[in-house]
Amino acid sequence: MANQELLGKRLNKETIDRLLNKGWIVERAKFIYKKKVNIVADVEIPIGEKPYHFVVKNFGWRNSQSRWFSPFMRSRARKSWDASWLLLKNGVKVPTPVTCYTERENGFIRKNFLLTERVDDYRLARKILRDFVVEEFFKDGVVRSIAEMVSKIHQLNYLHNDLTLGNFLVKNGNQDDVYLIDLNRMKRSRWMTTYRKMYDISKMNLCDCGLEKPHVNCRWIEFLNYYEPLNVKQNVKALRKAIRKNLMRHKVKALKKEFLGDESD
Predict the structure, then answer these.
(1) CA–CA distance, 10 with 101 (Å, rounded to integer)
(2) CA geometry: angle 121, 124, 128, nearest 5 deg
């Protein structure tokens, strides 16, 4: 038995069918941001009599295990939808969700997508912080904005679980106008420890030092001073440990991909 869940802006059947069709998205997209397990693209959708540009994220499956457990889970589109509204209500900027659609058959998730407003005129925080032309005061402002956003998320007892600098969009060259994306892995943590928070942060690769040796202008230290100014010393110790573990995880993942052809998105 088929079952559909649609949240947000109502779309006609033709539009829904198109957004469920990865081939149509790839063919008609104005721009494709990601094309692996999931497809993320800029698409033109008619709302009323006018066409508007949105970003669609059409979710695929990383493994068969997730598919088999899907009757007991929210779809990743629904997880992203819920996380988006939670963060928006608590002052964390994310692209405004427009429509969330999940299609199930006998309880198993078949297809799902999330449609959001497009963030125009942005640069990835990663590119800004690695750009030698960008002035240091602007980079400092971006780090501050990111730290304050992450601090709010952790104060809500949530972990993003994919905090990379590529998931922060800096809009219109404004260091205070930063958006967080890729929210489908965000989860509530019942036991929010210092180490868990620091491991969540460790994937951002803010500085090559890994906090192994003190030096001037360390982006990690700068981040922690904005993130939780009263607990910098404690957080440095936990973050150093988390960075080491994350580096080891990347090495194992690279070996797995090399020998098994593993691909993730």
Answers:
(1) 10
(2) 105
- Residue pLDDT, tens place only, 102-114: 999 889 999 999 9
CATH number for position 95: 3.30.200
Q: Give a yes or no: residue 140 inside a domain.
A: yes
Category of 63 on φ-ψ map: left (φ > 0), alpha (ψ -120 to 50) or beta: beta
Q: In whole angstroms, what is the distance from residue 115 CA to residue 101 CA?
A: 9
pTM greater than the 0.85 cutoff: yes
The amino acid present at 90, given as its one-letter code, is N
Tokens of 118: 């497009």
Q: Are residues 84 and 184 in the same domain?
A: no
Token representation of residue 6: 């649609």
Per DSSP, what are the bridge partners of residue 97? 116
248-258 pLDDT tens trace: 987 887 887 77
User: Would you mind telling me the total number of residues written for the chain in this entry?
Assistant: 265
